[in-house]
Each structure stands twice: as C-alpha cells, then as structure tokens.
User: Fold this.
Amino acid sequence: DTEVTQTPKHLVMGMTNKKSLKCEQHMGHRAMYWYKQKAKKPPELMFVYSYEKLSINESVPSRFSPECPNSSLLNLHLHALQPEDSALYLCASSQPAAGLGELFFGEGSRLTVL
Amino acid sequence: KQEVTQIPAALSVPEGENLVLNCSFTDSAIYNLQWFRQDPGKGLTSLLLIQSSQREQTSGRLNASLDKSSGRSTLYIAASQPGDSATYLCAVGAGNNRKLIWGLGTSLAVNP
Assistant:
C-alpha cells in the first residue's frame, strides 16, 4: 500500500470559519509533510513532522496549525484564513533518513477561502 | 543557493516518440533527486528516486539519469502515449533539513 489519503478533497470556507484538513498513511513512514501549491507553481513546504514531533516550520502564519496525533495521521487546522490562502494543500510522507527518502504525496485538498 | 531549472517548460509531441526531459541544478552537494508527475488538479506521483551515489534508475518506459558533476538529470520516456500527458517535476534533496528544491516543471502533451 503506497497510498496517502487526504480528506476532504474540496473545502470552501469563509474567513471566520475553523476547519481541518486530514491526512493518513499506512506505509509505516515516520516523516510527514504539509505542502501548499498554487496554480502552475511547484509545491512549497509548510511543515515537517519527524517521529510525531514538529521538526520544520517554514515560517507559516499561525492561522495554520499542524497536529500529528500519531505516526499515521497528520492534521492541518485552519482558522481565520485569507483569500490568498486558497490553494491545493498536499500531504506527503517518507521514511526519515540522513538525507531524504522517497516522498509519497496524497491527492490534495483544494481549499477556497471566500 | 541551490537552484533547479527544467527545460523545456512545455513540450508537445506525437504519440510514439521517445523524449527527454531535462533538469539541472547549481550545487552538486545533493542527497538525491526525484522525478514526479502531476496531472491537472491532482497530487504528485513519484516516478523515480535517484540517490546521490547512483547514476540511473529505471521503471518501465521511464529511465532517469544523474550526473552530479555536471549538475544534470534527464528523464527519458520511451514510446510516449497520450496517457503520459502531465506536468513533470524534478526536485533535489539537499541541505540538513528535509526540504526539496523544486524545478518549475515541464508540461508535456502527447498527441494521438
């Protein structure tokens, strides 16, 4: 099983809403990532969890709050977002390594902020 | 600062052609290089991972090579099919963190 599953696939929210994106993998990977991707651009790294601990925060605004409840799950809590936060949010996982293991991505959650 | 460039930005070929996508990087101190495929509005699919000690990797009709000394990788697609139409992204793993440095991608259209 080489799947990373993301829910929901689409999300529309107002600027005052609170919502969450969810990600799950059962490959036994111990590194999990959140990326943000705008149209016709490569993904931008947001957060990295390694062994359920936050290891990298790429100076992401606090309106994005990641959580890693266990080794298979990764959440991204959203609050008071701005229209410019509309994007495809991608979750990925890999085996941690001295460098980087092969990255496996989910299908993404398409977020629209009104 | 590591920079990754992909040439060409777009490519349109007739079905059946063999084709080469190029990726270049400015700093040879990399851990690995990955090629991904992305269909419109979808997530990324990992195609091939080449570790820094390797020269090439093959999967089916795909072959990726790595020449660290010249800062280049190529993705060779044999006997292209319309289903190969997608954006192909190259990313290098470098530095002490788990950050990939990405190219802007090559948009490939294979015409029946």
Q: What stands out?
A: Chain B has no helices and eleven strands. Residues 4 and 25 of chain B are 4 Å apart (CA to CA). The radius of gyration of chain B is 13 Å. Chain B has a mean pLDDT of 94.
